[in-house]
Amino acid sequence: MKRKLLLTMALALGVSTIAMAQFTTGTVTLGTSTRTIKIDTNASTVTMTLTGNSTHWLGIGFNGFSMFEVTDMFVWNATANRDYTPSGGHSAPSPDAAQSWTITSDTVSGTTRTVVATRPLVSTGDYTFTNNATSINIIFSEGDTTTLAYHGANPHDAQTLTRTALGVEDFSLKASSVFPNPTSGDFSVKTKTYLTQVNVYTQTGAFVKTINVEDDSENIELNISGLQIGVYLIELKNDTEKTWKKIIVN
After folding, report:
1. What Cα–Cα distance (Å) separates residue 113 from each residue in 22, 76, 85, 246?
2. Secondary element (H or E) of residue 15
3. Is the CB of residue 45 less than 8 Å from the CB of residue 31?
4. Sorting pLDDT into bands at 50, 70 and 90, what band is 173?
5. Rounded to the nearest 10 degrees, how much is the dihedral formed by the CA atoms of 168, 100, 27, 41?
6. Could you give the count of Cα atoms lying within 13 Å of 161 in the half-sphere of its Cβ?
7. Residue 109: predicted pLDDT
């Protein structure tokens, strides 16, 4: 009986661990450009964090190394469309009738735009993401303006994104990220847990202000505008832990 009980517990723990597993590419620089991408998956959802020139459209194609190969695209541009189907050649991709990507954050600091978007792993007519350590082949490009058109000589290339499993520590406040950074005042905190309070200090340790957080989402939008240009320390806290991050105000 004891062996059966232990076996049952082990199996249950194994299933639970698999169900809770999450994978990430980490923040990856795209080619030799200043753009970055980060793709995180869990059992049901993919989250993409993309940075790039705030005055350009920004495109990512999935499942190939050229416009002839990719089967699905995300394009930030001046329209409300974000989900696109490639033309199979050099023509502009077409917006999908059903838009599967949801923008959870879209912020600009200086000349850098940071976009956070999510969608289900499986979406009809779109590239299917998997929640495991397999690589993802992508293409990336950007334009001269926010109006979708030929990318010209702007950064464009193909790349393979590798992924690793997130450990238990990745679900603590220590794994939180702050973006954009530097910021002009508006910024977001992305966390895999929850946040109740943010304390702001100067680099020398002088207390500046406290921001109480009532939103329990994973992406918390905050504002510290009005502070002098410089480096600040922010203390992230919840009921069980706290951690520190550095942020630059420009």
Report:
1. 26, 10, 23, 19
2. helix 2-20
3. no
4. confident
5. 20
6. 28
7. 87
Q: How far apart are CA 47 and CA 63, in angstroms?
A: 16
Residues in the chain: 250
Question: In this model, does residue 19 exceed pLDDT 80?
Answer: no
Element (H, E) at 16: helix 2-20
Buried b (16+ CB within 10 A) or exposed e, 43-80: eeebbbbbbbbbebbbbbbbbbeebeebebbbbbbeee
Give the tokens for residue 162: 């590798």
Residue 127's Cβ-count burial label (10 Å; 0-12, 13-18, 19+) is buried
Query: Per-residue pLDDT for 115 more than 60?
Result: yes
178 sits in which H/E element: strand 177-179
Please check whether residue 178 is in contact with residue 92, taking contact to mean a CB–CB distance below 8 angstroms.
no
Model-wide pTM > 0.85: no
- As a whole number of angstroms, the distance between CA 200 and CA 216 comes to 20
For 185, the 3-state DSSP assignment is coil
